[in-house]
Amino acid sequence: MIQKELGPPAVHYLSAAEGWLELGNVTEAMLELASIPADLQDHYEVLHLRWHVHNRLRDWDSCLEIGQKMLDLNPNRPQSWINHGNALFYLGRFNDAYELLLPALEKFPEDEAIPYNLACYRCQSGDLSEAMRWLQQAMKVGDSDRLKRMAVEDPDLKPLWTQTA
Q: What whole-number distance in Å separates Cα of residue 135 and Cα of residue 70?
């Protein structure tokens, strides 16, 4: 699907919304996103930022809806799969998240975030050996030192470190 380019003023509203979100003001971020013309509300970048605003609000149902729309409209972007999977994960649907994201690994074999998230999903569902396998896969694909630092701080992987400590 070829998307209409985000030009002025939409790109400025999007930038302002990003700024407000970085400052922690989700209300202003939502107002800026609402100012984007209706024909651009389903643009990938707009949906992606809207997903993050709802993530900040811990509004998992909205994240799930937005993630599904991202995946429907942009299946060739790994973040569409990841956002939708993470929404399922945040709703406690760990196995659903895993089943959704697993096919993305074949589509995007060089994306370290996919096996990393699969590790989180398996870890939270109690399959620690598979979680470790996915984490090792992520480290093969990406920057292993950075991923190791990230993993030891990630509360989603805490059961893994408790088990291996």
A: 25
User: How high is the mean pLDDT of the chain?
Assistant: 95
Tokens 């389903």 identify what position? 42
Q: How far apart are CA 24 and CA 152, in angstroms?
A: 25
- With a cut of 50, list the residues of the chain below it in pLDDT: 165
Cβ neighbours of 51 (radius 10 Å):
25
Question: Under a CB-based contact definition with an 8 Å cutoff, are residues 3 and 44 in contact?
Answer: yes
Rounded to a whole number of angstroms, the CA Rg of the chain reads 17
Question: What structural domains does the chain harbor?
Answer: 7-93 (1.25.40.10), 109-165 (no CATH)
pLDDT (0 to 100) of residue 106: 95
